[in-house]
Amino acid sequence: MKAYINETFDSERALYGSHGIEVRECRFDGPKDGESALKESSDIRVSDSFFNLRYPFWHDDNLTITGSEMTENCRAALWYSKDIHISDTKLFGIKALRECDHVAIESSEIISPEFGWSVRGIKMKDSSAVSEYFLMRSSDIDFSHVRMQGKYSFQYIENATISECEFDTKDAFWHAKNVVVKDSVIKGEYLAWYSEDITFINCTIIGTQPFCYCKGLKLIGCRMERCDLAFEKSEVEADIVSEVESIKNPLSGNIVVYDVKELIMDDPEAKCKVTAKKILPVK
Beta 166-170 vs 177-182: how paired, if at all? Predict the structure, then answer.
């Protein structure tokens, strides 16, 4: 394996088409402002390196990145690549990950708008992320101990398992399919609208108007805080261990709740059974 150690690269396609190389303590930065430093490469090991130029890892195969930094100027860092392992790394450029396969990220920090679109097979653990439109249209997702702050996250995702995470986000899980979220805190507005076969187990749900227009929705042992107008037009089976501000016109299924301040059932199509220790008068 050829090694590049403590070197600086700034030319266009500086290491284009490389195979079986180690890049250690290097900088991709400089006045030539070149793009696509490691495009069309394979079997690459990068460690303790600095990336300040655009599109470094496109169409790469078998890539490991550790202890490195990709700045705000490192736009669209990883696209159309597969078999990627990233650890102890900062990914700060916009659109840092897209259209990739088999990605593992751990102990890393992400600040990247539009991160992780159309990624197939992504595992993330012990990491943090700040992003708008986080992981849109991605599939086969496995998250644990991830903290995420953003806006429109996990839209149109499929096949996901999420455990012991904290998400502060609005419009999360819209149109999501086949998702299980366990032992997590989800804070935001309009959670999981139009989702199908999504399950929350031992979670805390915080925010207005969650779970509307859902199919196959399940809540098992969950808490709901500041949740009003919940479950409108949804097919739902729920066991909620806290009070809910208000429930509005759930379409079908069963909701068992510790208490609900207001139950609104003014749609003749709403047939869901709601059971609580105390329910205020129906409107």
Answer: unpaired
For 208, phi then psi, to 5°, come to: -75, 145
Contact assessment for residue 53 and residue 31, using Cβ atoms and an 8 Å cutoff? no
Task: Convert 28-58 into a string of H (helix), E (strand) and C (coil).
Answer: ECCCCCCCCCCCCCEEEEEECCEECCCCCEE
pTM over 0.70: yes
Residue type, 250: P
At 111, which amino acid appears? I
Q: Print pLDDT tens along the chain (283 aa).
A: 899 999 999 999 999 999 999 999 999 999 999 999 999 999 999 999 999 999 999 999 999 999 999 999 999 999 999 999 999 999 999 999 999 999 999 999 999 999 999 999 999 999 999 999 999 999 999 999 999 999 999 999 999 999 999 999 989 999 999 999 999 999 999 999 999 999 999 999 999 999 999 999 999 999 999 999 999 999 999 999 999 999 999 999 999 999 999 999 999 999 999 998 765 455 5
**Which tokens belong to 59?**
């169409």
Which of 61, 68, 21 shows the shortest CA–CA distance to 45?
21
C-alpha to C-alpha distance for 76 and 137, rounded to whole angstroms? 17
